[in-house]
Amino acid sequence: MATVIPLETPRRANGDEALERLTALVAEDMAAVNHLILQRMESQVPLIPQLAGHIIAAGGKRLRPILTLASAKLCGYRGTRQNKLAACVEFIHTATLLHDDVVDASDLRRGNPSANALFGNQSSVLVGDFLFSRSFQLMVEDGSIDVLRILSTASAVIAEGEVLQLTTTNDSATSEQAYLEVVRAKTAELFAAACRIGAVVAGRPAAEEEALRTFGLNLGIAFQIVDDVLDYSAEQARLGKTVGDDFREGKITLPVILAIHRGTEAERAFWRRTLEEQDLREGDLAHAQDIMQRHNALRDAIERARHYGAIARDSLGLFPDSAAKRALLDIIGFTVERRF
4 in a domain, yes or no? Predict the structure, then answer.
């Protein structure tokens, strides 16, 4: 069983409560989004709604579509366009999860058997393609070229990020800059797009659109850094996936990069054996965690996440005080301090 490493960071607020407040703020819209998701998952091919429904029913925070709804509310929008676009964002995200689990050969997703473990790789990839197609149908129905440009660009960048990650996997010489390029593309770009379209549907000025893009981008970077820390520090039951997956797959994440740069030659040889050569032995994960603890790699990675959270916070400065703004500011703390 993996060692649980305390991160020893102060909690400024209850993160679960922050997420609950943000969710409650957009609850009515989110109910409409969930209805749309179920409606648009339907197909005459029974396996499609069955497989798509499996991963969507597994839960998750729905953070990306919630950000779209909250951003539209922040901008004073009172229509309903944001609902279809939030569903579109969730379809893009879900499609990437299906594809990721196939690439990573993951057996768990949010604490349940992954779709590829139950239905096979071929079905998961093809249903992921179906969800991408559904997302583009929703974009076209919205009718905005700006929305289409933002979300289609995000979809392309996400794919580039996944491919870029393949080039850094098993390479212990990967730099922090290269790691951040992967994170910006494969995770933060969709956060940025999800927030930005809230300003677009509200017809807000370019400065507000850019502010929300910056907020989402930096929130997404912080989110992914924390995700990578949790892979070495969280309890499996709470995290909802197998702890140590990144280690076993040879992924080069920020905690690993910091540990390698600060380590001894013997420790760097350990990382080469485990991550590059994939020569994994009993006790290696615990040893990797010990090295990270010794060099404060997990603690300092969280500090990096806080840095990006601070940039996200500053970006909302031009918006007047409101319940939506307070909820979005609070979600930064949830993102950085979360344990799942």
Answer: no
Match 């076209």 to its residue by tokens. 140
Q: How far is CA 205 from CA 75, 199, 201, in A?
A: 10, 8, 11
Distant-in-sequence, close-in-space partners of 129: CB < 8 Å, separation ≥ 6: 95
Residue 103's region, left for phi above 0, alpha for psi from -120 to 50, else beta, is alpha
Q: Full-prediction pTM beyond 0.85?
A: yes
Greater confidence (119 vs 182) lies with 182
Number of domains, the chain: 1
Residue 7 inside a domain? The answer is no
Q: What's 333's domain CATH number?
A: 1.10.600.10
State the chain's mean pLDDT as an integer.
91
Q: What is the CA radius of gyration of the chain?
A: 20
Domain carrying residue 187: 15-337
Task: Render pLDDT for 246-297 as a digit per residue (tens, 0 to 9).
Answer: 999 999 999 999 999 999 999 999 999 999 999 999 999 999 999 999 999 9
Would residue 64 count as lying in a domain? yes
Find the helix or strand (DSSP H, E) in which 65 lies.
helix 63-74
Residue 191 CA to residue 187 CA, distance in Å, equals: 7
DSSP string computed for 265-321: HHHHHHHIIIIIS----TTHHHHHHHHHHHTTHHHHHHHHHHHHHHHHHHHGGGSPP
Residue 61 DSSP one-character state = -
Assess if residue 2 is contained within a domain: no
Tokens (6 digits) for 290? 């010990």
